[in-house]
Amino acid sequence: MTEVLISAKGLAKNYGKKQALKPTNLEIPAGRIVGVIGANGAGKSTLLNCLLGLSDYEGDLQVMGMNPLMQRAALMEQVCFIADVATLPRWAKVADLLDWVAGLHPKFDQAKAIARLKTTTVQLDSKIKALSKGMIVQVHLAIALAIDARILVLDEPTLGLDIVNRRGFYDAILSDFFDETRTVIITTHQVDEVEPILSHAIFIRDGAVTLDASMDVVTERFLAVDVLDNQKAEAEALRPLYGRSLLGRTTYVFDGVAPEQLKTFGEPRRVGLADLFVALAQ
User: Fold this and answer.
1) Stretch 110-134: mean pLDDT
2) Is 8 helix (H, G, I), strand (E, B) or coil?
3) 3-state class of 76 per DSSP?
4) What number is the average pLDDT over the span 250-256?
5) Please, which residues bridge with residue 246 across strands?
């Protein structure tokens, strides 16, 4: 049986009268790459803050069997968290930064981080403010991949990066960190960028989780098909989640409708996460 690393029951968070995270049930197993997808302000960072013990919450939450609020120090020995790439102290030297991390995280292998940086153009005596965004990504990666963590949490980690550096970032995570015992959690609104590497998707809209499913389930459960105008009434009788009309035909997204029923209109196809997010937001 696959180990469950994160379990939430009735997890919720309020800021005064605003409910930033509505009561949520989640289970995230080991060996998954999980995309937490939503617009800015949807509740993605609120969920992460709860998981990391950075915010109080209502409900029951266990991360690797620990209460994030009561056992945060022990929890963070098993977690690596990367937020925006611009959050490193700009006045610090790279070598000093590695020294600080070594003093803070008991599972940080400083020699491993230095060895990785020596394969890049980043110099240890360089100040963060002198580095390009691509170089800063390399520093983040060197730190993250030198921590022997069970959970890697990435909160919008590639904002402001060009496509080459974004792709390189995720390639390194996959090749040098991820395995069947570890879980990667990525929050993003750049759905198309992360979809190819995900094994699980969580959608959040206005503080509510609208989808929590493996990519295998998403592929089997949701289908899209293009329907001619003279077949729209027949297609709508199958109660599609969403329809979008363009150039004399309408693309419908269906939930749980058998492919054989949809072949009446055309060849059904899997639904991309971006289109599915829009469909579930209706």
Assistant:
1) 91
2) strand
3) helix
4) 93
5) 249
The full DSSP string for 118-163 is: TTSS--TT-BGGGS-HHHHHHHHHHHHHTB--SEEEEESTTTT--H
253 Cβ contact list (under 8 Å, min separation 6): 222, 223, 224, 240, 241, 242, 243, 271, 275, 276, 279
Summarize the confidence of residues 40-69 as an average pLDDT: 91
Report yes or no: 112 and 179 within 8 Å, Cβ to Cβ.
no
Whole-structure pTM value? 0.87
Other CB atoms closer than 10 Å to residue 33's CB: what's the count?
21
Among all chains, which residue has been given the structure tokens 């579930």? 280
| Furthest CA-CA distance within the chain | 69
At position 261, the amino acid (one-letter code) is Q
- Which residue type occupies 56? D
Q: Give which of 39, 79, 65, 62 is closest to 187, Cα–Cα.
A: 39
Boundaries of every domain in the chain = 4-217, 221-280
Summarize pLDDT for 185-231 with one digit per residue, the tens. Answer: 998 877 888 899 999 999 999 999 999 999 999 999 999 999 988 89
Please state which CATH class domain 4-217 belongs to: alpha beta
159 pLDDT tier (thresholds 50, 70, 90): confident
